[in-house]
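Quick start: read one record
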Amino acid sequence: MKTSILTGYQTDFWFLVAFFFIFLAVLLLILAKRKGLKTGLPQGRVVYSDTRGWDKVEKPLFDPLSGLVGKPDYLIQDKAGILIPVELKSSWAPPEPYQNHVMQLAAYCLLVERTTGKRPPYGLLKYRNRIYGMDFTAQMEGDLLELIKLIRRQKQMEQVDRTHEDANRCERCGYRHICGQRL
């Protein structure tokens, strides 16, 4: 039985190819882990997503007590099993988070608590270049519930005054053409 010299080279070649792909896979895993750490998001498993990817669209969270309905961009379950709501914003981060963004995140925190029975200690506002961790305090929850009451009262009114002095915001408003208080 003759063995060809090429057989030895072929074995070495396939061994090197396999080694290369294993090395490449490990390298990509390390790079992905580093990239994940750089996002600033907590380590954990994404258990809810409203980013409209290839997966099914998630059912909104609903709280019959407050009447709130909402879909956070992500719910991440951390290693301790706590659900952390994450709200993504496509804009650059302001020096301090906008109050409407804070209230939106507070609403998601309240929805998580009311639908799961477990209060998230905080939520995350992720802007393009920065992440703000916002503690879900009793004060924040109280401010949210007061805001909900105010909105409900104003829905009953025939005329609600404009609540800002921002000409850019006013210019982009979808109701500008019928608003008697436009800037």
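The radius of gyration is 25 Å.
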